[in-house]
Amino acid sequence: MAQYNKIQPHWWTKTFAGVIGGFFLTLGLVGIFAWLGPTGLTEQITEEQRLWKTQFNMWIITPIWLLILCFVYMFKTGRQAWLYLGVSAVISNVIVYLLRSQL
Amino acid sequence: MKIRSDILRTYQSLHTWTGITAGLLLFIGFLAGSLTMFSDTINDWATPPGYQLGQVQSDQYELLLEQVLAQNPDSLKAVTVSFDENSSPIHWYGQGSARGFSMDDQVWHATLNEQGHLVTELRHVNELSMLIDYLHRSAGIIGEVGHDQAGVYVLGIAAFLYFLALVSGVIFLLPSLVKSFFALRKEKGPNRFWLDSHNLVGIASLPFHIIIAITVVVFSFHDLFYGGLSQVYGDKPMFGGGEKHEEVRYDIRELATLNEIKQTIHDYAPGYEVNSIRLSGLSSAHPSASISIISDRTLMRGPHNDYVFLNPFTLEIDSSTVRNESGEQSIWAAVVTSFFGLHFGSYGGELGRWLYFVMGLGGAFLFYSGNLIWLEKRRKKQSLNQSRSSHFMANLTIGVSLGCAIGMAGAFAANKWLALVSWNINIAYMWIYYLLFFVTLAGAFVYGAARFSILSLKILAVLCLLIPTNSLIAFMLPEIGIWAPDSLGDLGIELGAVGFALASLYALKHVKRRVYHGEKNSIWYCSKLSKKEVVESFS
After folding, report:
1. pLDDT of residue A1
2. For B234, which of A7, A47, A100 is closest by C-beta distance?
3. B15 found inside a domain
4. Do residues B300 and B306 make contact, with C-beta atoms less than 8 angstroms apart?
5. Number of helices (H) and strands (E), helices first, in chain A?
6. Number of domains in chain B
7. Model confidence at A84: pLDDT above 90
8. For residue A55, is it within any domain?
9. Which of B214, B222, B236 sits opposite A58 (nearest CB)?
10. What are the beta bridge partners of residue B112?
11. B295 is a domain residue
């Protein structure tokens, strides 16, 4: 039983889960932030504010994605990594899709 | 701190494999990157005195600009007025442009002579600093993808591995961190010493490395990220939008004076000094002035400066990289600017640059020592015969790291002699670098890392010492035509070369001991007998 609870290596499946699933999850999270966060897309903002906010949104993709990638190896198995990251990626992107079409 | 053993093992493997795959690429990036901190000084050092034309009095700029614009229609496209005393007062591109990577750019320099008449000269742009910057950004990997060098994307991927290596390294170091952070255990053998110093440098400069890893990923893949964002944004514009620019054609006589532009900048960004003003598209529908401004007291967004963009006819400010107090640019601007500034080390003036130089070299040390530790861990402890993969990695480590250093030192050492002949010096730099790099790499594989490390460290020391020797020759035999250092920055580069030479000699001393008197089962060991063979085969 103790053996079963240990983290399995599953290097490649976890890495791909982190790279692909992690990227789309990040994009979803940044998307929600871009729409609902301060200086969001629904607000009336100046050209200059938009210039910096869009750059900011682009910049935060990397640290979030990299952190997901770092900790994807904590999942017990590659399948779990795909499951959790995949489902949250889908949910976050559906939210973005709704925001895009509703707001 | 206690961490479960399976987590530790996972992250230890992760650290090992990410480190070993990305290490050598990052070594080149960091070694060259630390030199780019002084790129202006390097260019000044690399060009003969008089390469840049003399500056003019502060009240003559207006007259100079007027004459240049009137007599050279090319300059209407883009012309730069520089107030820097080390550069010509005005220049514009005769061939090529300031953007992109090209080796045969030619620039017109202009100034006024004592009678107040216009003097112009067409010159190749010397790009010794461009070679260094190219190595910094692409690790010298040849080829282009899209609008960038292939190496940029390769380094972008290396930066992913680098970030993983950083985090995993910290995780599996945590349990022993408090106990052994400052311990540099020499008595426990060289391997323990390498490991301790690797950990010390890594942890001490961790924030710097995290910033560098994140920014490199962004610099390489921002197109992809903006592409993803545009999906998220839907119909909303990412940039611009809203206000429409009316198309107005301006008469060149309505151009604002340089003093008016300076005054506008002074009001907009107090505390900054105007370094240069670049006017472009003066006869087009979209005229623009980009003003490069400098302050040592704030974090700047560019490698050496901040920018303000304005309309040179109406003095209306379009955008800028300066954080001003009007609140328009807020926290978002602050974060974005910080990322740029923290990568470029463009804050804190000279001191900041030196600090980044040292941390850059520290980074190179981190990757080099990481490879050594990997080699030491994998070798068979009780056998003279080591696996082929150990030898391969040892040869590659020595060949790539010393090859890069020797290649750059060679370009610097040859620079003043190359300038004597009229050819495109930038292509000569490339040939020298790649020739030396590949010869060193081949040498490491032919003679084996252990023996070759001795020879290549000697070569590196000699090349570094040639740099001040050239200046000595220039000083004693001025008729040859090469030049001696004539500024503090020039002297700094010569002293730096001496410093690198001394470091190589110091390393040489230790390497010799390791090769001839070290542990016999080490992959670095060669018997004394083989020393004679080596000497014979090289002589």
Report:
1. 40
2. A100
3. no
4. yes
5. 5, 0
6. 3
7. yes
8. yes
9. B222
10. B118
11. yes
Interface probe for B, chosen from A27, A33, A61 (most Cβ of B below 10 Å), is A61
User: Which pLDDT belongs to residue B93?
Assistant: 80
Query: What range does the domain containing B96 cover?
Result: 52-125
pLDDT value of residue A2: 46
Residue B481 and residue B395 share a domain: yes
| Chain B residue whose CA is closest to A7 | B6
What's the confidence (pLDDT) of residue B379? 75
pLDDT score at B99: 60
Domain edge (last residue) among B80, B108, B125: B125
| Distance (Å) from the alpha carbon of B329 to chain A's nearest alpha carbon | 6
Helix, strand, coil content of chain B in percent (nearest 5):
60, 10, 30
Contacts with B332 from chain A: Cβ below 8 Å: 39, 49, 52-53, 55-56
* pLDDT tens-digit readout, A10-24: 899 999 999 999 999
- Helix ranges (H only) for B379-519 are 388-418, 425-447, 449-476, 488-517
> Do B425 and B126 form a contact (C-beta atoms < 8 A)?
yes
B383 and B529 inside one domain: yes
pLDDT, residue B381, reads: 67
The whole domain housing A92 covers 15-102
Same-domain pairing of B416 and B527: yes
Residues B418 and B511 in one domain: yes
Candidate from B13, B228, B328 with C-beta closest to A49? B328
Within a domain: B516:
yes
- Residue B287 belongs to domain with CATH number: 3.10.450
Domain boundary among B102, B125, B148: B125
To which residue do tokens 């592409």 refer? B227
- Identify whether residues B491 and B390 lie together within a single domain: yes
User: B389 with B304, same domain?
Assistant: no
Q: List CB contacts (< 8 A) between B3 and chain A.
A: none
Check CB contact of B336 with chain A, cutoff 8 Å: yes
Give the residue from B402, B388, B362, B393 showing the smallest Cα distance to B198: B362
Q: Find out whether B339 and B217 touch, Cβ atoms under 8 Å.
A: no
Residue A95 token pair: 């939210």
Residue of B nearest to A10 (CA): B10
User: Whole-structure pTM over 0.90, yes or no?
Assistant: no
Interface touch A52/B332, C-beta < 8 Å? yes
Report chain A residues touching chain B, CB-CB < 8 A: 6-7, 9, 23, 27, 30-31, 34, 39, 41, 46-59, 61-63, 66-67, 69-70, 73-74, 96, 100-101
> Total structural domains in chain A?
1
Do B261 and B324 share a domain, yes or no? yes
Cα A49-A53-A59 angle, rounded to 5 deg? 150
**Nearest-angstrom CA–CA distance, A93 and B529:** 68
What is the reported pLDDT for B408? 94
Nearest to B163 among A7, A30, A66 (CB): A66
CA of B299: how far to CAs of A36, B133, B305, B354, in Å?
29, 21, 9, 15
The answer as to whether B286 is a domain residue is: yes
With a cut of 50, which residues of chain B have pLDDT below it?
529-539
C-alpha span between B510 and B513 (Å, rounded): 5
Question: How many whole angstroms separate alpha carbon B197 and alpha carbon B278?
Answer: 47
Predicted confidence at residue B181, as pLDDT, reads 64
Q: Are residues B438 and B510 in the same domain?
A: yes
